[in-house]
Inverse folding.
């Protein structure tokens, strides 16, 4: 089995480029969607607690 340093180097470069593309195109947008959902859930829980307190007073 031959070991070619150039093949290894190109594979490492390709892997790094792939990681960069995935982070840019996949990770960042998904992270933004998750943060929006967390905010929406927090707002919904807060509204439910306010409604529950109002119902308990009435």
């Amino acid at each position: 089995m031959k070991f070619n340093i150039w093949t290894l180097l190109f594979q490492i470069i390709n892997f790094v480029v792939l990681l960069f593309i995935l982070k840019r195109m996949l990770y960042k947008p998904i992270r933004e969607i998750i943060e929006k959902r967390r905010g929406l859930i927090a707002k919904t829980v807060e509204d439910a607690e306010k409604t529950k307190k109002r119902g308990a007073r009435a």
